[in-house]
Amino acid sequence: xxxxxxxxxxxxxxxxxxxxxxxxxxxxxxxxxxxxxxxxxxxxxxxxxxxxxxxxxxxxxxxxxxxxxxxxxxxxxxxxxxxxxxxxxxxxxxxxxxxxxxxxxxxxxxxxxxxxxxxxxxxxxxxxxxxxxxxxxxxxxxxxxxxxxxxxxxxxxxxxxxxxxxxxxxxxxxxxxxxxxxxxxxxxxxxxxxxxxxxxxxxxxxxxxxxxxxxxxxxxxxxxxxxxxxxxxxxxxxxxxxxxxxxxxxxxxxxxxxxxxxxxxxxxxxxxxxxxxxxxxxxxxxxxxxxxxxxxxxxxxxxxxxxxxxxxxxxxxxxxxxxxxxxxxxxxxxxxxxxxxxxxxxxxxxxxxxxxxxxxxxxxxxxxxxxxxxxxxxxxxxxxxxxxxxxxxxxxxxxxxxxxxxxxxxxxxxxxxxxxxxxxxxxxxxxxxxxxxxxxxxxxxxxxxxxxxxxxxxxxxxxxxxxx
Length: 468
Known about the structure:
- It is a single chain.
- The chain is of the alpha/beta class.
- The chain has a domain at about 1-65.
- It is about 45% helix and about 10% strand.
- The protein has helices spanning about 1-25, 25-65, 75-85, 100, 105-115, 125-130, 135-140, 150-155, 170-180, 195-205, 225-240, 260-270, 280-285, 315-325, 325-335, 340-350, 405-410, 425-445, 455, 460-465, and strands at about 160-165, 185-190, 210-215, 245-250, 255, 280, 305, 310-315, 375, 395, 400, 415-420.
- The strands form four sheets. Strands 3-2-1-4-8 form a five-stranded mixed β-sheet, sandwiched between helices. A three-stranded mixed β-sheet has the order 5-12-9. Strands 6-7 form a two-stranded antiparallel ribbon.
- Strand 2 (about 185-190), helix 10 and strand 3 form a beta-alpha-beta unit.
- Helix 1 (about 1-25) runs antiparallel to helix 2, helix 6 (about 125-130) runs parallel beside helix 10 (about 195-205) and helix 11 packs across helix 14.
- The chain is globular.
- It starts with a helix and ends in a 5-residue tail after the last helix.
């Protein structure tokens, strides 16, 4: 397009020169027109080359995910070019001032936002099936960030797994917000999902070279081994790519509370530690019945630990989970237990004799600075109302589905992700959180805002870890 404009401009300039030459016979006017032509040619040519270099850089990163680039991310002109190339303002159609809602906790604005109970968009499977026929249109119209936004992020890629079973738009918006061309993503679509939704996800992945779909998904049932099996499938898929530093697992109903730059800064501050929550005392008191049906004791003299399936783990830990004989034997043993996903990661991370890099040294209860900061979640404890944080949304299966009134506390927490949101319940909550994080992403990029990670670096995860 720029080349065509260039030729049109040259033609116009030539006609102007000829007419002026016939009418005015003035050498100075000829020279002036000629100089303007040359300046225009230089500007258009330079702009075209710059655009090609930027787009070419994005394609190169997306295809090869190479960590050898020497681009100067701190160059202000380069940053402005990337900003203009990528920025797509996200604004909620309800006209809610999201800064007032999330930052100021403005009750009037929150009350106003609660009036909008129907989601503003309706991006169904047919929409995605159609728009992904042209990948460039899909990436550009949906505002995917095609360029690394800092040298720190570029040199510290993250691998994400996402377990999906519903709400294609919500998952795609999650993907858009966490997407970077140098990261890696695996999506496991539940076997029970509708065919058109599965095909839509496949076409989305085809437009993003670093997003991988599990080709033979399992039928995920909560409490069954199938949930851990789906996770292992994504771990195996992502494990074949050697560049990433940390693995984070997500579900389709979660949403980030931190930008990618913040995530990287926090993970770097952990200095290789795995963020895997586990409790020995609660295991002995409440959860031993989960394994009581297995006749044989845990293999390799492992001490069982109850924890969470949500983790942020270094790749040495993931490699151990996938390939070490102890882990493989443990996986087989867990197949006969209940809710094995809440035992697998926590047990391997809290048996220090295994010597897995980043795992916790010593007994969990002796190191109290291990908050579950991977997720901001509000649980409903039956019969213990004094322990329940206020949920401004609604409780579903004892977990708070966040509303607009929950955003201030969630955004200002130490949590990395919030669990959970429903797109058809107070949809402005998701709209506002997405809008604020997207704007913060670009503000961090343009202004190079420092990130305070002292809280995370002083946790026992980091201080009491097994080193290689």
